[in-house]
Structures are given as C-alpha cells and as structure tokens.
Amino acid sequence: MLLNTTPKITIASGTNPTEGGIVGSFDITLDTPAPVGGLVVNFNTTGSTATASTDYTLAAGTNITALTANTFAIAAGQTTATLTVTAATDGVSDPNETVTVNLQSSSDYILDANSTAALTIAEPVAPVITASNIALSYSENDPATIIDSGITVTDVDSTSLSSATITISNGFVATEDSLAFTNQNTITGSYTNGVLTLTGSATVAQYQTALQSVTYQNSSDNPSTTPRTISFVVNDGSLNSTAVTRDINLTAVNDAPVTTATNSALTYTENAAATIIDPGITVTDIDSTSLSSATITISNGFVATEDSLAFTNQNTITGSYTNGVLTLTGSATVAQYQTALQSVTYQNSSDNPSTTPRTISFVVNDGSLNSTAVTRDINLTAVNDAPTNLALSQTNVDDKAAANSVIGTFSSTDPDQNDNFAYSLVSGIDDVDNNAFTIDGNSLKINNSPDFKTKSSYKIRVRTTDDGNLTFEKGLSINVNNGVEIPSRLTNPNDDIFNITGEDIKAKLEIKLTGHSSKLVNELGLFTVDDAKGTIDGIAPGAEGYAKAAIDRSKVILSAIANTPNGFDTNNLTTLLELISGQSFRFLLVQDGTLDAVRNDPNSIGKLLFSSVSTQKITDLGDDGFSLGWKDASGNSATDFNDLVVKIKQTDRALPLGTNLQNKFQGEVIDLRDVKQSVNAEFNVYREAAYKNYVGFYQVTDENGGIDTNGDGNADILTGQAGYTQAAVRGRVAGIDLTVNNQGSATYSGTFQPGGIFVPFIIINDSPDALLDNNPNNDPAVYFPFLGANSDRSDHISLLASNTFGFEDLSGGGDKDFNDLIIKVNLTTTI
What is the pLDDT of residues 200-219, one digit of tens each? Predict the structure, then answer.
C-alpha cells in the first residue's frame, strides 16, 4: 500500500528538435518534491520512428542527475526536470520522424494519466533559387556581363547561407569562357575551369545580391556559338538548393582582317626595275578563311607621270591599276591574299623623279569589313643622268663685231631638271676654231673682231658638264653676218603691236610712269606675241584662251598706286626690260590688282584690260618713243586716257643692278647672283598706314624661294612648308631693319653680299622678336613675294618700278593699295 507522500509523475512534449538546429526537450513534473536521494524513473522509447544514436541522442537536461537507456534520476527536492533530444544531421531529406518516451510504473512514484509524450524531428528544408526563364544574349567582344540580375534566393528555415556554386554546365570552352565575381559582404569568390565558387557565411539576401552580380565574359574573337548553360546552386550549411540554370546565347561578330606591314622603309633607286614593296607583309583574319578584295594605294607623294604599281594575276585574284590605286579582286584564301600582297611591285619611270617619299597603303576586305590600312614608305634616290644635248641661242655674229662680243648663251637638255651646267671648249671633231672663242659662264664670246671677207664661219666643239660630272659634246658652226647692220629701233607697225630691234641679240625697253589719275591701283604688263596681228600660238586676240596665253607670257613692268605716302614721288618711276631683238609685243593693264594675283587665281582674269581703241591711246613722240595712255573702269571721263600714262622707248642703258628677276612671276626680289663684290644699299622708306610695319631682307637659294639653313647651298625649307617664316626672319640680313612713322620717310643703308638672291618680307605691326620668342600665340602676320608662303595666299608686294616695292599690310589682299610701306632701293657695288 503506497503512502500518500509518493510523488505523482507526468511527462509532456516540449520543443521539437531539428536536424542540425534546435535541440528538443521532454518536460517532467512531480506533484511533490523528489525524496532524499533522488527519484529514479523507469522509461522506454517504444513507438518511436526515429532510431536512437542514429537519428537522435537523448540526454540529461535540467535536474536530471543520471540517465541510462531505460532510467533517469531526478534530483532530490526537485519537482521538474527535462530530457533533451538532439537530432542527428545526416544530410538526407527524410520524412519527419518521432521520438516517444513512455514512463514505466514503479513503487517509488505514481504515474499520471499523461505518462507518454512524443517529439517530432523536423527535416531541414533546402534553400530555393529562382532564375530568369529567358536566355541572355551575349555578342562577341562584349564586356563582362551580369548573367542574371533577376535571380532570387529564399530559405524557409534559415536566414543565412554558407556557399554557392556557379558552373558553366553546357557548351563550356576553357580558352574562351570565364566567370567573375567581386568579393563582397564576407563572401569571396574563386574561379577555376568553368566553376565559380563563392564561400563565406552571409545572409540569404547578401547571397542573392552576390549571385545577381556574377558576370560572364568570352575572350575570343572567333567564339563558339554553342549556347552556354550557367547553373546556380546555394548551400545553407546542410543542404544544397536544386540547381537552376540560365542559358547564354552567343552571337559571333565579324572581325575585320588584319594586315601587318614591315616597319622600315624600302629604298628605291632611280631606273630600278619593278620592286616588290613588302615581301614581309602578313594578313590574318580571326574568323574567316577567305578574303574578297584588297586595295594598294600610293597615299602620299604620288606623281602620276612617274609612279606605278603592278601585280601578276594569281590564285583567282586579278589586279587593276589606275592613277595610284591597285585593286585586287576575287575570292581566295587569306594565305593566297597574303602571297598576292607580298608580290605587289612599285616602279618609277622618270629619269628625274621626285624624291618625296612615297607611302604605300594596304587594305584587305573579307566581304564585309576592311582592315585598318597599314603602310610602308618608299624612299627614292635620284641618279644623275648625263646631258643629252646642248644648244647655243645665237649661232651667228655680225661682221666687225667688237672683240669679246657675246655670240649667244648655252643651254643644255638633261633629264634632271634642276642640274647646273658648266661649258667648255674641248678637242675633237669640229674643234678647228676653238682658240678663236672663250666661254664665260654660259656665254660664248669671240676673242677678236670677225671679218667676213677673211673668214665667214667658224667651227668649235663644246662640252656641257652637269653637277654629277657627266658630259655631252657637240660640234657647232658660228657664221659671220655679211656686214648687214640691224638698227636699234622701237616701232609700232600695227595697231597696239610694238616691235623692238637692237644691234645685239638683246634689246632693252625703257618704260617711265608719267601720269596716273585712276582711283585704282593698276599694274602694267607686257607680253610677247608671234606676229604683227598679235596672235599667241595661233590664238587671235579676243579669242577663247587668249587671256590665259597672254598671262603665261607676261612680264611685270610697274605699278601705279592711287594714294601715295608723303615724300614719295611717283614722277619718272622707271623700269628697264630686256627683250630679244626683233620681238613683237603688246601691253595689258591689271585693274585693282597685280599680275601675280591673277596668275595665282585664274578666276580673277577678268581684271585684265587689254589694249584697244577704247582702253589705250598711243602717241608717237618721235625718236622711236611713244606715249601710252590708258583708260580703266574707275569712272573717269570716257574721253580721257590718263588713268595711267607711260612713256616707252628703246634704250642702250644697262639694267639696274639687282633687277634680273623683277619682271617675272613673284619677282619682287634683288638678284645679285652675277655680282662679284659686296653691294651697298640705300633704302628710302615711306609709309601710309596705321600699322607700324617692319621690312627686312633674307637670302634664298633660287628664284622659287627655298632657304638654305645648314650652309650647304641647297634649299632645306621650301615656301609653304612649316617653319618657313621663322627661318626667313631668323636668317634676315643683319643691319637692314626698315621702319618709319606714318606719313613720314626715312633713309637707311646696308650691305648685301654678292652671289645671292635677297627677298623682302614685311612683319605686320610688330618686329622680328615677336616671331622668334618661342611663343607662337603672339606671332604677327608675315608676308613675302611668294604667295605660297603667305598664310592667306594673297599678293602683298608689288613692283612699283625697278628696285621699288610697294607693300599691302592687310590680310586677304586688304584694300590692295600697296602703299602701306614703300621701299625704294639704290644699289652700288663696292670698289
């Protein structure tokens, strides 16, 4: 019989355990405290679906002092106690299992009605990924691209994840494909051979953000277009999610072919055979095995009359050459086109080739795209050619001509256009009378006065030698005129046609300005004609092409300005002009401009005013002298011919020193090439301009204006090239610095060295220092007689008379008054 102090025991289910997570518990209650020594309670687990040790572990909890397979002891004096249940983590998703504890009877306690309790072991739930259900499009050469910015991750029984794996699970090409990830939120990434592994404990949201940032990139220029499948898996520390995928569709892009040329220049020597331009050129195409065409172009330095490219048809490729461009067409392999390009040749047909380097450009086409052009330069070396002929301008001499008279001047025919020639009398056929003559420069002189009665002709042998010491020889006959004297005369045989004769080969004409009332600046020119009707090369006056033909033959005489500075006297301004004896000629007037400007701009040919009864009045002054009065379009009386008036006559006066080139195109220079002594120069300077301009002179190598910067006598910088202005100003003649106050005049002196051509230049409203201070931002305008050297390509210097120059200081030709600065130069040789 039990005493009423025997405790009554009850068991109830507490917290359910989860695998790898929550620890479960059974709650035990006594209605009276456990006796001294504690209370041992019997139990079993009959009815459990979970297996002890395998699926769970039962352990002593609160107030349990001992636990065996079938008993547990409650500490003395305690009325509550717990048994704990820890679920085993097996990584396998099973149906839920139960753990049942059944209390068994004993004499030491009484069982309550609630003597059995059960706990359920909850299976863990894997995380879930949801990917976008449409494929990603990726084009060749795209940058690294996020694979799935809309991917989501959830986990119903965990707030954190421990890892993720992103795999290229289909179509993977190791040499092309890569995945990338930027470490973030304690998550780090590692990529190897198609698999990107993310590790690190982080929240589900952080892992979702991480997966949304994973990128794909393809590094190939010729990628496989097999779709790639990207698999995503995450792990919560126990279970992997089911893999989800997103496909990537790849689009290949056609890549242009690539040519690579040799990076050193090819050397080509004049008269060489057709030469392969680049035997080492290569052609590749990453995504095509064939090409459809190629273009080889002489893209720099091309001279149509000299240069040619050639190709021998091969491998279905045919070539066509036109005006510097060789076109290859025909479908062929990349290797065959490479061979074709390696066989293309260059040849120069000239005996006097331009030595400007040629640049050859190569382009190939794959049917859709051109390659980027690559180039190879060709450096041309000219070879000196021997002269092929020589001529004497006059092959007769007058009976009783003075000793040392000039018979004529020699000229040479040579393929090399810029050669200089030395002439000498040499032994050989027809040399019988060599001793009767002397050659001075290019002039043939007779040593003694000839006498027709004793010797009517001479035979000599002459050699011409070019700069390269190559020669040509020829026998010549010099005939003596039978005492017929040619009078020196200037005549006006027909209308406005004039004719001049002289005792020598050359005859000189003097033109003096005697009046100018025009509102315009006018320049007077003279041009030679072929007969008394004024025709030029068969073109009659007024016919189409006559004006152009006249311009080509024109010589500048002088310019008359409308507004003269104080102190400058236009009366009796004079020009001397040398013509061939027997030559016929006409005059023309350039209204409001210059012959240089008209030559430079054919559209301005309408400025020319040819002589006619309505434009020119000719007055015979007697003694072979004439007055020419012009009427221009400036608005003066229709009956007056005083817009420009000159007096012309034949003269025996010597040409003023330095004027040899002044009647030619862009000839406003001082030519001292035939002078042997230093030349003293006096400069009279006048100004009618707001700008305080500066005029100086610099030396050039030839009448084209080239500048020798290294002292070897050759032109190093040509007009229009970079640095020309600075070279001219830097090389100016020392001590000739010409300026003057407005409406003032000044006189300067200086010295020119012999043997050179000296050219004026004007610096607008500044000085040489502004150009030579290494600060291009303050450079003033500088103008030259050479229009190609002027920034505006306009004429800024006019010939007012022999050795007298007028300057225009405004850009674009300005008001064309050529009175902004006037320089009159008087030259004398030193004794």
Answer: 999 999 999 999 999 999 99
